[in-house]
Structure formats: C-alpha cells, structure tokens
C-alpha cells in the first residue's frame, strides 16, 4: 500500500510550486531539524550496510593502497545546457545502477539513448524548474528507490526490465548538509537572485515533505576524511555541490555546480594531473592522494582534483556543503 508517502507527494504536487542548482540552507521557518538530530555516524553505518555499528572513518584505503586507483566506474554523461549539471549527475547515477546495459563501454562518454532522453524529461519534470536545489534530487531519489512510488509516478522505465527495478530497490542514499532549508542571505547572491523567491517556496515545501516521510538526511558538517573513506568503499559514490568558480580557479562569483565523487588515487601520474589542473601549491607535500571525480561540464570520463581545492570548493559560501552519499547493497 502506497499510503502516506503517495498522499504526501500528492499534496506537494497540488500545492503549485515552481523551481538553481543546489540544496536548501538555514534555520528559518519550518527548518527545525528532524532526522538531522540523529548522529551522522549511525546514519552512515546504516548506509554502508545497515546493522554496522556507528561508523568511524578508518582511512583503510589510504593506508592499504600504496599505488593505484580505487574508482567506481560507469559511463560518463555530459551536461547539455548551462543549468543541468545536476540532471547529468542523476543520469550517471542511473547508469551506475544499471551496469549491465553499459558494461562494454564503462569508461566512455556515451550520448543519451532514447530511453535516457525519456528519463531526462522525467527528472526535469519532477524538479519542476531549471532552477534546481539538492532537496529536489532527494525527492527524485526517494521516488526511484521506493517501489510503490516508482510505479505510481510513471517512471518511464519502471516496467520494462525487472533487473532495473531490482537495482533501484537495492540502492540507498544519505543526504548530508551543514544547513537545511532556505538561507535568506543567499537572496543577494547573483547565482540565486533571479529565482530566489519561487525557489524558496518550493524548497521549504520539499523539506517539509522530507521530514514527513522521515527521509535519510542529517544536518551536520562532516569532515573530508569521512567523505573520502566512504567513497573509497565498494559501490559507494557521492554527489557533491561545489562552487564552480573555485574549482575552475576563475576567481568569479559563486556558481553552484554538481559533480560526482567516484574514487581516490595514489598513482603518481594522477596526482601530477591534479596538481597541474589545480595548482601544486594547493596541497602540502604530505598529501599522497588525489580525488577522482566525474564532472559533467568536462568531456573527460574522469578527472583528478587535489583534496585541498576540492574541499575549498565544497565548503564555499553558497553550497551549504551539500553531499548525497549513494550506496548499492552488497
């Protein structure tokens, strides 16, 4: 029985919302913490396999990986417009959850198939706008990962392949942010200004829905060590909101941009590429690894970023340090 979940989604649709690319932010009306008060390590333990004790970063991979990469592979997807980096990331996640379709070309940047174009339209329609915040993607993931909701909201591929449906059912996610809701301070940011008022109305309703459904989310500021440790594990990736002006080292105003964090590398050539792109001075000599990302704005299937530059872009004002951790059941 779809019960309260479908009814809550129905109320959201009936409320007439509209829709920049990032998640919610500060503690104002309707932004009291909900699952956010739960200890983040317990939630990460649940994500990694349910039944694990409260999680603590182990650094196991950086200790054991003397040279080489630890990367989750799946086909790259480039964004098609200036505003749809998050859409492209969602479609890469969906490719990852259906690896059998793409096994022959796991590292290629593949164009969207006809079915994927239908998926893209479904995602955009679900966001209700080209101005997308992270909470919009949380609602979409819940629709994908909940079988009853997936069937009832006309997901275009839900009935074509039983293996696909099984992939959705076995996946889990966890949304982490230092601040939930809508931060009125962002009203003055050029990136948010044009759509801020209508974004705020939609985002507040979607956070209210997420609380009502008790979705897996936690309002907490996490360390980069935790993030790196989680994505170094098998079948775990992260969708992260960065300041594109920082990651491009352009020095411009804030520009929200979603990427996928898919692994780490201690390979000397990969680290050299990261330093060439990000600036060798960004990291201390003791740094012996780089991060492996899929950036929908870059043509390469994977690119390498120094930890210091990545963290600077992730913690920039405007991002709320948003992260969606996603794991497949092992």
Task: Characterize this entry briefly.
By secondary structure, this protein is an alpha+beta fold. Helix content is 40%, strand content 14%. Residues 13-37 have low confidence and may be disordered.
CATH architecture: Alpha-Beta Complex
Radius of gyration: 19 Å
Strand content: 5-15%
How many individual domains? 1
Number of strands: 8
Overall mean pLDDT stands at 77
CATH domain class name: Alpha Beta
Shape verdict: globular
DSSP helix count?
14
- Main beta sheet strand tally, sense and closure: 8 strands, mixed
Task: Please provide a written account of the structure.
The protein is of the alpha+beta class and 330 residues long. It has a single domain (3-328), classed as Cathepsin B, Chain A, CATH 3.90.70. The protein is 40% helix and 14% strand. The chain has 14 helices and eight strands. It has helices spanning 3-14, 40-47, 60-64, 85-97, 114-127, 134-145, 147-152, 162-170, 190-193, 196-212, 224-231, 244-247, 268-278, 307-314; strands spanning 69-71, 171-177, 217-219, 236-243, 256-265, 290-294, 303-305, 323-328. Strands 1, 2, 3, 4, 5, 6, 7 and 8 form an eight-stranded mixed sheet that branches. Strand 6 and strand 7 form a beta hairpin. The longest helix is centred in the middle third of the chain and has 17 residues, at 196-212. The radius of gyration is 19 Å and the shape is globular. The protein starts with a helix and ends with a strand. Residues 13-37 have low confidence and may be disordered.
């Amino acid at each position: 029985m779809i019960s309260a979940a479908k009814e809550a989604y129905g109320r959201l649709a009936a409320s007439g919302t509209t829709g920049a690319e990032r998640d919610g932010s500060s503690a104002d009306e309707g932004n009291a913490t909900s699952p956010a008060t739960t200890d983040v390590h317990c939630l990460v333990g649940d994500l990694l396999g349910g039944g694990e004790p409260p999680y603590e970063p182990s650094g196991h991979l950086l200790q054991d990986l003397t040279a080489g990469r630890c990367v989750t592979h799946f086909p790259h997807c480039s964004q098609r417009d200036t505003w749809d980096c998050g859409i492209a990331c969602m479609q890469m996640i969906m490719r990852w959850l259906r690896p059998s379709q793409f096994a022959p070309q796991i590292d290629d940047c593949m164009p969207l198939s006809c079915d994927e174009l239908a998926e893209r339209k479904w995602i955009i329609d679900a966001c209700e706008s080209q101005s997308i915040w992270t909470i919009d993607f949380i609602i979409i993931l819940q629709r994908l990962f909940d079988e009853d909701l997936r069937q009832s909201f006309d997901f275009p591929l839900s009935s074509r392949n039983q293996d696909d449906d099984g992939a959705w059912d076995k996946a889990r996610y966890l949304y982490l942010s230092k601040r939930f809701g809508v931060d009125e301070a962002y009203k003055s940011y050029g990136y948010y200004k044009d759509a801020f008022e209508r974004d705020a109305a939609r985002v507040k309703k979607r956070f209210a829905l997420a609380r009502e459904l008790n979705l897996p989310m936690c309002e907490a500021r996490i360390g980069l060590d935790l993030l790196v440790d989680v994505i170094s594990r098998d079948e775990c990736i992260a969708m992260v909101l960065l300041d594109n002006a920082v990651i491009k080292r352009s020095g411009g105003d804030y520009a929200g941009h979603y990427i996928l964090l898919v692994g780490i590398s201690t390979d000397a050539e990969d680290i050299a590429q990261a330093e060439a792109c990000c600036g060798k001075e960004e990291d201390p000599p003791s740094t012996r690894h780089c991060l492996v990302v899929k950036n929908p704005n870059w043509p390469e299937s994977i690119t390498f970023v120094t930890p210091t530059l990545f963290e600077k872009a992730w913690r920039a004002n405007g991002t709320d340090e948003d992260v969606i951790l996603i794991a497949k059941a092992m």
